[in-house]
Amino acid sequence: MAACDRALSERRAVDAEQAFGQAQALMPDHPAVHYEHSRRLYAAGNPHGARERLEKAVASAPGEARYWHGLAAVLRALVLNEEELAALDGALKVEPRDAIALLYKGAVLDRMGKRRTASRIYSNALQVMASGRQLPPALEPLVREATQRVQQVRAEFSAYADRRLGASALSSVGRRGNRFVDLMIGRARHYPPRPTGLYFPNLHNYEFHDRDQFPWLESLEASTNAILEECLAVLGQDAEGLEPYVAYRDGLPLDQWKELNNSRRWSAYFLWKESARIEAHLARCPKTEAALQAIPRVDIPGFGPTAFFSILDAKTRIPPHHGVTNTRLTVHLPLVIPPGCYFRVGNDTRPWKAGEGWVFDDSIEHEAWNDSDVPRAILIFDVWNPELSVGERDMVREATLTFAEFFDVEGMEGLGL
Fold this sequence. Notes:
The protein is an alpha+beta fold and 417 residues long. Helix content is 48%, strand content 14%.
């Protein structure tokens, strides 16, 4: 039968026929013989005979998914929906993440008028495909149909849930309750914190944190004009002080930074860099320094604070990525914001507005883009996560330094802690 399959793939019909005849003479009830016999019967216009052969194949070899797929295809041609479902479930019992079987199962349910159940099966298939499973080009129309059905049912469920739960109920449960409903409906995805370095458990994983947690934010915003004036001055007089924000050494598995690594398209004018004061830069920005000194920033020797003017060039996108740790939060104070500049953290996408700061958790996936024709400029710095107690901050400091001391023996440069 292997020789028969090989001859068929190479379009050697005579050799295939000879090999099949030999196999049939040796073991007429072998499942591979039944399978090939069914293919010939189906091609000859006898789907009922093909079904009989395939049922014998799956009975003797239930762990062979291709026999179940063959049976499902014949039953599909015979428009026997319930029987096709059973055959597809046989294939899924062998391989639960069989995207092809899931797609066809969704299609059967769709034909049976079970659109909502079909959308859930289709969703499973699309999730498997998103993990990298490649499908034959012939299935592209079915994939498009599956995607469309999932979107339609999701929209219907969204409208139903809003009516059923009621706007007043949703307004009374706050951000967590609304996010719970959005996740249930599919209007939002779950973006857990995935720091590239140190993870502190049981902290709230809000994309953007509430302003009332940071009483110093209004005072910082009140200094926007003075900070903007100093930013524009250094851009005009000390452009050489700008350096690529992304500067990883070769050999690290950081493909997302291929376009921006060592590029000035996203550049930084550092005031503090990993706890080190950049004296020449601070001398040019005394008002910015004064505003930052009043804020409880991260203080870990060799790691924090960090503060800088971030310049994102025109027509430049920062790819989705995660920050180092959830023990810190990141602050943006927008300074020069042309139209077409946006920032996404998890499910929440916002435009920057000059003079309006925000605080976000950069251990959650985030990205930024500038679709305008001119650069964008903001002030960025990091602060302690306010949920950490004084003792926990001390522990984070010591843990970070312990990690650094251990690996410093062999050099940590470029490891991204």
